[in-house]
């Protein structure tokens, strides 16, 4: 592998890992704070991607689609939490698995009814359409760099919100001991709703950003869901920074796995997970 | 329900099932055969979920591994011996469950759910991405295994009715076996682990070994179902190991009410029955299925088998607890 190829694969790994972080961070927060295992989280990614397709066809630009899509995703998330997930907090994991599995079926079929079952492309916004020439034959698209940049900004923002704001303090407290938080007079249900809506919006945004690269296709949420699970397990449930580290590990393992070990590329990520679990059964950065 | 009534009911259901081939409708025989196979599969998972308290979201792996083993170990244009193929396929599923169990049983709770899922995905990719079993196209089991012992052939799986009764007999055997296991000290220990693992440990039980035993046994019995499926349909694809299948079988167990072997079987029948009905109505049958699942979780926490009790209490005007 020459240097240019290596550079490209490294950038791809970073971009893929950071994008996965957007999905996994919401998943791990919902696990950690609300104690809910949400199989439908991958569907939010799928919904985001289809919103990108529908809205960018309507408005003519992915940027507008994202500007419109994020508030929609937040409202959708808050609604779901109010209508369904708030009823699951006191149920056991099994029922959560079941209900969210049912939701996947519902979301996929609604997608099929409202849009269709075809594969669709989404255009890259014109101002990000260029490529950077690395060698005579190899170039790197600016759009992928832009994705990485957006994800890094969001990760920093998330860090700031969680570590430096009052809301973040309440979220962290809820993560540690929800009964105590309630006893202190904080409306924990409101925090749950905010966190859930945030998680939905992050996953949907990841889907919108990925839509031009991966295109938009049925069941695209399933793959992302399982990889995000792996990330949450490797990182330690409830740990956002664990999810960041794990997402990058998975991004590199998957991208370089495809280049170096194409025969078993589908398994590389799971092998990494098995190795991590042997070493640390509760993830790299288990909280508490 | 006292034991006698329960036994009579079970025998009555068995009698009804035994009469299905008498209708002479090939369609019904096939539909019910598949339900029987799924009932075995659901009971095997119930041993883990309902009795040991281990929520596995990767149970389809063992079903699929045994199904692939059946297809791969059969000669291409010749019948394998049932008496070799059956134990070999089930043994491989059990071996896979034993090895995977060594890893996944180190984890608990949500981790366990996700790690079983991840290992099942790994198995899925082995068959999906490598040429071992025909890749994503799957593989055919061209000739059904032969039941001949020496020159004597007690039954012929190529005959639809023989096959039906063979599957029904295996279902009854698996049920009796599991019921016996659950009454044994081993089964009692599993139930104890479900209600309080720490207490079992402090009483001196090496709970890891018990859980590994249960995981392996459940994998083996899931393999029994997978083997029967492969023989019945003669065609095996990676989708058999997909996490949707693991989700479906979990659904059957919960639909019927966990910790109840008959309930698991009822759940399998209900699930396959609903699928059949919904598929007849619309191509978007999964929308209906998903809505039913959501509704069952929200409004019927004990599963379908809690319905008679709920109805009785409702009729007597008591509180619905």
Overview of the molecule:
The complex is a heterodimer of chains A (288) and B (321). Chain A is mainly α and 288 residues long. Chain A has 11 helices and 2 strands. Chain A has one domain. Chain A has helices spanning 3-34, 41-59, 62-83, 93-114, 142-164, 166-176, 178-183, 188-214, 220-235, 240-260, 265-279; strands at residues 131-133, 139-141. Chain A has a two-stranded antiparallel sheet with strand order 1-2. In chain A, strand 1 and strand 2 (139-141) form a beta hairpin. The mean pLDDT of chain B is 88. A two-stranded antiparallel sheet of chain B has the order 1-2. In chain B, helix 2 (26-52) runs antiparallel to helix 9 (207-233), helix 3 packs antiparallel against helix 4 and helix 3 (60-73) packs across helix 9 (207-233). Chain B is mostly helical and 321 residues long.
Strand order of the largest sheet of chain A: 1-2
The number of distinct helices of chain A, counting runs of at least 4 residues, comes to 11
Give me the side-by-side strand order of the main sheet of chain B. 1-2
Cα Rg of chain B: 20 Å
What would you call the structural class of chain A?
Answer: mainly alpha
Mean pLDDT of chain B: 88
DSSP strand (E) fraction of chain B? Answer: under 5%
By oligomeric state, this entry counts as heterodimer
Structural class call of chain B reads mainly alpha
**Uncertain ranges of chain A:** none
SSE layout:
The complex is a heterodimer of chains A (288) and B (321).
Chain A: H1 3-34, H2 41-59, H3 62-83, H4 93-114, E1 131-133, E2 139-141, H5 142-164, H6 166-176, H7 178-183, H8 188-214, H9 220-235, H10 240-260, H11 265-279
Helix pairs in contact in A: 1-5, 1-6, 1-8, 1-9, 1-10, 2-3, 2-4, 2-8, 2-9, 3-8, 5-6, 6-8, 9-10, 9-11, 10-11
Chain B: H1 3-19, H2 26-52, H3 60-73, H4 82-104, H5 109-129, E1 139-140, H6 160-183, H7 185-195, H8 197-202, H9 207-233, E2 235-236, H10 243-256, H11 261-281, H12 285-299, H13 307-315
Antiparallel strand pairs in B: 1-2
